[in-house]
Amino acid sequence: MNAMPPDRLRDTHVTLSHGGGGRAMRDLIDSVFTGVFLPPGTEDQARLTHAALAEPGAQLAFTTDSFVVSPVEFPGGDIGKIAVCGTINDLAVGGARPLWLSAAFIIEEGCEIALLRRIVASMQAEAEKAGIRIVTGDTKVVQRGAADTVFVTTAGVGVIPPGRSLAAAQVRPGDVALVNGVLGDHGAAILAARGDMALSTDLVSDCAGLGHLMEALITAAPGTRAARDATRGGVASALNEIATEAGVGIEIDETALPLRPEVKGMCEILGLDPLYLANEGTLVTFVPEAEAEAALAAMRATPEGRNAVAIGRATAANPGRVVMNTLFGGRRIVDMLVGEQLPRIC
Predict the structure, then answer these.
(1) Which of 336, 270, 346 shows the shortest CA–CA distance to 71?
(2) What average pLDDT is seen over the chain?
(3) Same domain, yes or no, for 147 and 240?
(4) How confident is residue 1, by pLDDT bands cut at 50, 70 and 90?
(5) CA–CA dist 209, 244 (Å, integer)
(6) Cβ pair 139, 33 in contact under 8 A
(7) How far is CA 251 from CA 28, 37, 99, 102, 294, in A?
(8) Of 139, 160, 181, which residue constitutes the final position of a domain?
(9) pLDDT category, 198, cuts 50, 70, 90?
């Protein structure tokens, strides 16, 4: 690793010159980004090797995502943390072990350098926690009004070990649906942080990387069929996607849904359905009934899964449908979300 150049950045806010390709841009990149991420080299591409790639039958997993959350800092996280965790989770729920991330930043003129430093620090902290590296990236600066402070685009690469296969189409009738934590915290926390509704709450986002949890789950329940992180559209949309792809029905019990009273109360006031609120550290997974207890125990032994519960199961009836048994003894269809309850949520 080459020694990092001295920190020459003295500006407090980003200007268009920081995107111009000259010394100002170099100083911004060296001081704010590469000085923290420490990528393996200074070429225009990362050159990577890993022993896991050489295992016969191993598969490369690759995902990409963009983040435009408003506000960029919120209780429990910021746009940088959510970018790293969201990309890790997209890999992990497919059974991959995340290894490397890229990060590209679209920065609005006038953005505070101090804010960028906080975002980058939280990204690096989450990467270290997950045991991955941010190895390459890009920055662009746009004029005022052309963006909203900062947007982040990430791509992630991981390895699916030989013999591991998770896919929604593999879910079978009788499989048990599990979630690792409470629902709707991220969406509710973002809504409160925007301040539009004059809501007072101590809610924080559930934003978290789930790579370690998925490894514990698969070790304890090797027959795990599939997993989805319940981000935009919430757990309802994730369940509908699985029901459609597997050609099964899914029944969930309202009494089993883990919801904080504050989230339920906010949804009642605003006419929202908590099943559709976004999460950034919550997944839904299906495991064979015989492995459900072992799966729950393994998830509860991790910080991200201590509130894990079973919420329902797959059925042969009503293929492609999600049905909820309600508190009052009735049944209602939980359909795919039409439109978006809350924009700019992640």
Answers:
(1) 346
(2) 94
(3) no
(4) very low
(5) 26
(6) yes
(7) 52, 44, 35, 39, 21
(8) 160
(9) low
